[in-house]
Amino acid sequence: MTALVNGLNSSGLFQAGFQLSLSEARNPLTLRPARPAMADQLAAGHYLSIISVILRGICRSLERAPVFGDCRFNVFARRFVQMVIIGISDLHGRLNALKAILAQAGECDVIVLAGDLTHFGSPKDADSIIEACRSFAPHIFAVAGNCDNEGIETRLVELGVGIAGRGIIVDGVGFHGLSGIPPWRPGMYQFSEETLASSLRRGFEEIADSLCHVLVTHVPPRQTNLDRVLWGCHVGSYAVREFISTCQPHLVVCGHVHEGRGIDVQGKTTIVNCGHAASGYYAKIVLPQAGRQEDIQTELCRADLV
Predict the structure, then answer these.
(1) In 37, 104, 180, 215, which residue has its Cα 20 to 30 A from 66's Cα atom?
(2) Is pLDDT above 90 for 50?
């Protein structure tokens, strides 16, 4: 800043007999003669204020810089080198299984809980699960599954971890979520495909400017290797499949279909069904810088349950 001011002074700009008022900072092309009573010192102060405003504007512009291919020209904003995510789904209230998974997986950057935290349980059950996760990651994001309920969904939001229909950006990585499943049978936490699609759009709008896009959904996309049940039919969501086809998130973390545990790729999207966490299954995912899909590392793991 000192060098900039000295440069302006040496160029004679401060002696030019002009000043900008603070109200005129919005229009830097508007100049008027300095009032005779104004000392050079005050004129310099005006210029310093204007320069400060301009520099702040430049910084904000760079923080919102556009994406070029897989990279963002972003000098002042934080950029992640890599992010370690532990994906857990379908705990069905098995707190002992969660503790075994966390002990084996160790500390990470983010824990995502992709639904069915409880088995038709209560918000108090959700409290215990989230509390167990807090010592292992600074960020926890969760959605509700078909075996959860609206009370649990509300409690997740109160705890600051619920992302169904909402978006949160962490170090350039945008997370948003989808709770529930398409209509199946009475007693489930379920919604129409139209409602699911609306929730997906709302969450995505809040993280559209992120460097990397992660969707956490209980239900997998329809017609993939991850939504086929034992008797062979697909039970995933058409809304999720359409959203992936249109928006191409870098990563989708899901669950719901226990026997569908695995990894699939749809276009530029890596999809991970974490499996039945109540049996010790989980996923470890490493997002690389700029979230290049071909460099995303995924590992399907199983913790030993005592």
Answers:
(1) 215
(2) no
